[in-house]
């Protein structure tokens, strides 16, 4: 698996929203769930559009989501890797999205973050300016683990990420262990809440 690294444009930031999961714990496509009146995928994209110049949605089912996305979002069909038939997980989808980006920094987001707030990312975005050239990502941490789909990555990480995947790596945590990552401050941990199960969905519909 190899990619040609595009030349970064003058744009400062893009976003990649991943919507390729199987939703096995939810029992139905969580990207289409609308606990607050708007499908989760659409809600996340609307938040993302408030921050970057372009939003890419990586999914195995582009036709399923086309009608609910803001017109300015670009769908990227996720494709299986050669010789693989099982779902390959979000890291590969992220790499496939990253191959289309032409900005120095990318905001990566999961499609199941119902409590995202634009203000959080506006606070975080300025922290990129102080990141050294050796920094791969700026991410929040929760329960001792990086939260890989709620933070920023440098486009320059694509060759190393591609090589990690070529060697069989599929874990965000495994790949990030070899990268320099700066921790983003989180004043309100609820912004990192993932809606993965029916119980999670009930929490969003009827907050305690």
Structure description:
This protein is of the alpha/beta class. It contains 7 helices and 9 strands. It has helices at residues 40-49, 62-65, 90-98, 118-125, 158-166, 172-176, 198-205; strands at residues 13-18, 54-59, 74-77, 105-110, 137-139, 141-142, 145-146, 150-154, 181-183. The strands form 2 sheets. It has a 7-stranded mixed beta sheet with strand order 3-2-1-4-8-5-9, with helices on both faces. The protein has a two-stranded antiparallel ribbon with strand order 6-7. A hairpin with a 2-residue loop joins strand 6 and strand 7. Helix 3 (90-98) crosses helix 5 (158-166).
State the secondary-structure class. Answer: alpha/beta
Give the radius of gyration: 16 Å
User: Which sheet architecture does the biggest sheet show?
Assistant: 7 strands, mixed
Low-confidence spans:
1-11
| Envelope shape | globular
Number of strands: 9
Q: What are the secondary-structure elements, in order, as H or E? A: EHEHEHEHEEEEHHEH
- Enumerate how many helices there are, as a single number: 7
Approximate strand percentage: 15-25%
Give the spatial strand order of the biggest sheet: 3-2-1-4-8-5-9
Q: Give average pLDDT, whole number.
A: 88
Query: What's the helical proportion of residues?
Result: 25-40%
Termini distance? 46 Å
Which characteristics define this entry?
disordered N terminus, alpha/beta, 208 residues, seven-stranded mixed sheet, two-stranded antiparallel sheet, single chain
């Amino acid at each position: 698996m190899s990619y040609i690294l595009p030349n970064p444009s003058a744009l400062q930031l893009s976003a990649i929203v991943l919507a390729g999961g199987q939703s096995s714990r939810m029992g139905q496509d969580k990207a289409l769930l609308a606990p607050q009146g708007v499908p989760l995928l659409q809600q996340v994209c609307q938040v993302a559009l408030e921050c970057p110049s372009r939003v890419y949605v990586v999914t195995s089912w582009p036709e399923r989501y086309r009608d609910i996305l803001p017109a300015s979002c670009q769908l990227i069909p996720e494709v299986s890797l050669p010789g693989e038939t099982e779902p390959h997980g979000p890291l590969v989808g992220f790499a496939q999205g990253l191959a289309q980006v032409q900005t120095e920094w990318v905001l990566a987001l999961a499609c199941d973050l119902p409590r995202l707030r634009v203000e959080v990312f506006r606070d975080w975005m300025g922290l990129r300016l102080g990141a050294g050239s050796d920094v791969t990502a700026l991410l929040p941490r929760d329960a001792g683990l990086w939260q890989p789909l709620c933070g920023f990555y440098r486009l320059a990480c694509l060759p190393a990420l591609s090589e990690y995947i070529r060697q069989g790596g599929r874990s965000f945590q495994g790949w990030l262990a070899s990268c320099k990552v700066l921790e983003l401050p989180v004043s309100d941990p609820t912004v990192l809440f993932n809606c993965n199960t029916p119980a999670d969905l009930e929490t969003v519909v009827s907050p305690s």
